[in-house]
Amino acid sequence: MDGGEIIILSEDDDSDCEVSCSPVCSEPSVLIVEVEEVKSDNVSSPSVLDEDLVVTFSRRAEVLPHARYDCPIHPFTATVCETGAPAGNNQLICDQCFCYVCDKLASAVVWREKDMCHCNSHKRSDFWSSLRNSVVLGYLKTFNLTLSEIDAHLRHAETMLKIFRTKLALEFFLFLNGYTAVNNGRSQSNQQCLVFDYTRVYECVSSFLSKADEQEDRAAAIMRLGAAEVFIGHFQPSGVVMSESPMASATEAKAMLLQRVMASVQKQMVTADFTPEFIHKLQEFYQRLHLPLALKSMRYSLCVRPWDDVLLVSVLKGQNVTGVRKDKGKKDVLTEQISVVLLRTELLQQQHRYRELCRYLRVVQTDDAKQFQELRDLIPVFLCKAGEFSSALSSFFPSLNGPASRLSPSLFLLCLHIFDTGTAPMVITGQPTQLFFPDATWEPIQGAMTLKRAELVKFALRVQRCCTAVYTDSQCWTHLLTMVNTPQGASTAVPEPTAAFLQEAKSVVRSILQEANIHIPRFFHSMYPDQALLLLVTEALALRILDTTLNPVLPVLDTFKRNVWALESLWGSLSPSSDCFCSFLQQVTQELENTTDRENTFPCPLSISPSPPNPSSSPESTYCKFLCHMWCVVMFVSTCCGVALSTLCVCHCDFSSPRQSSGC
Fold it and tell me: Is the C or the N end of the chain the one with fewer CB within 10 Å?
């Protein structure tokens, strides 16, 4: 090539032209153009200067690296699949010619052999393209990956897999050979038997999987499934003596290893930034594996929908509220394994997509009903974190068997605190117990409006009605009474209402608590809002005490220390039932006697005792009021004077018989 030539490279990699069998390749990608020398001292004419492009300097072109069939120096003769001998002068190369199959300099590879002449390879032949993929992709070809998908991470993964397969083959060979049992605690007759221990093979695979955990996401997935392809074919020799090591059995060890692989790849499919095409290739690879009968249950472990799945997207956006879609007469149901559901739940929480999470949990179907029910019961909490308090309240009571009926006392108190403060714990949860992380940070919920006090009381009373665990828990009552015993927005006592209001409130409170669905009328708490709610909860407490024993009761009664008038209302509700009331008094005295710090636990002044007995009252009611008065005196004397309750006569009375205790 002389100094007046320029080489122009033309890209036609995407050309769909058919293979030409003519002696010379019909469409070369390198053109040689003759150019004239341009002297730098020539002065261009004004007409030339007006042109858009003026050539002022040129030099000899350099030949860039190229495939042999694109060589600008040596013509190439294209054939379909000629491998026996070079076609034409295809064996000739320049310094920049690369082998199309090996993707290396032609001078550094075996360029021509008797049975495989790489010099004839070119991109327009399916035969040579397939051979190139096998050589360049190596083991990665089993995943149907293309060259455009290969990067340095996947190359490194392939290299590590090659080393691992060699090492594992040696370990499995040693396992099959076994070793002679010596001093293993067996009988004398068995000491010379071969012992087969799969532990070293298990440790080899486990170590490789740990290395995969440190790699880039796609490389880690390839390494895990590549390892599974190898160890899944291992077997346990029959009729042999096995070691007592936990992983001595190949069957049990393979199950443990495959579970680890499936859990890791599942998580990657949900949380990693995989393309749908790459996920599909991983699934196809796993489906081609021949799982033994003992592991058939994990056949569909990688059947994970990508995030852009049509049905999944429509559910998340609220366009599909049933989780069922018909496509060309086929019914597609949103069904996923519980492990996948938990992974999606975790990721959607991390992304603060709480509304989409609730839509998903309402319609998805899974294989673990018990665990999934615990997860669905958290829908109200997720709605709270989304700032939708009204929707959260409704979701607690969708039916007779709603989430409210399964609330634990701790979860009830947490929800009550969220509704009252507009804050929530910033934790990622998949079950209710994870919400109570002690070091969790409570942060304000964006856009949330705290519930009014009346709505809080209504919610609490409705939960107590349908949930036995909350109804019987003393701490739940203490928390609720502490809230209503303090005016909203203040830390003082609730002022005592008028006597007329107290009298009228008794009938209204009873009618509210007798309703199937609790409703607090506006007129009831319009004039005395705090007093009305306190009386309502106090009456509910009286019904609770009359129903069954509330233990412990002192913390509950201690909430009334600033509102004596409300405590008097409680005595008035309890006193008509003499037996229950007397039992209640006995419980209080017993708890107080067992309390060391009585003054701070329940400072009960003498002024809270009921009014003196009315002579017109029935003997039973008069006696009960008398006992209540005596009980208050005992509390006062015991607290102020430090006298043990067991030394006072009221503690030795038989409350079931007025005659036996009248001497007190």
Answer: N
